[in-house]
Amino acid sequence: MIETTFMMMTLACMTGCDNVDNVIPYEDSQVVLYGEWWLVGWNHEGIRYEVNTDYVGHRHFSIEIPREGSVKAYSLANEATLGEMTVKGNQLLFSGERGITKVGCDIMESNFFDAHILKIKSYQLDKGLLRLFYSDKDFFEFTCHFDDIENK
């Protein structure tokens, strides 16, 4: 049962990444922003935190960045609407409806994600990883390749 659930979760995540049309030739180490990204970890006040990969999957510690429409992010318990995104250089500007649901959760990673995800203001792409900065130095780090999460 556990193996079947894991295989289904992996397949769903891999399918999600394939369906987003977001990979440019990988040898260029550049990926466009659009698609679904899964949380790898974050840097906060100079300390690196890894997320428990058992928690990560489609709409669990992920962010969906559509070409049109609102950006959505998901912790374990809540859904955040960041608004419609405009990219200006490495800056991310959001407009329209913003907010997050308020379902309680006692998992630290989920609470931290919920507390900071609406503060996203810029990004950096680095070898297939997307860093979304919520301050000048602090950021969430995401991948669009689920296998990258498992191998960390």
* CATH third-tier fold name: Lipocalin
Please describe the biggest sheet, giving its number of strands, its sense, and whether it closes into a barrel: 10 strands, antiparallel
| Rg | 15 Å
Give the count of structural domains: 1
What's the end-to-end separation, in Å?
Answer: 25 Å
Mean pLDDT: 80
| CATH architecture assignment | Beta Barrel
Shape: globular
Number of strands: 10
Give the DSSP E fraction (strand runs of 2 or more residues).
Answer: 35-45%
In the CATH scheme, the class would be Mainly Beta
Helix/strand/pairing class, anyone? alpha+beta
Q: Which percent bin holds the helix content?
A: 10-25%
Q: How large is the count of helical segments?
A: 3
Which residues form runs of ≥5 with pLDDT under 50?
1-31
Which SSEs are present, and which pair or pack?
Blueprint: H1 2-19, E1 35-44, E2 47-50, E3 62-65, E4 70-74, E5 79-88, E6 91-95, E7 99-100, H2 108-116, E8 122-126, E9 129-133, E10 139-143, H3 146-150
Antiparallel strand pairs: 1-2, 1-3, 1-10, 3-4, 4-5, 5-6, 5-7, 8-9, 9-10
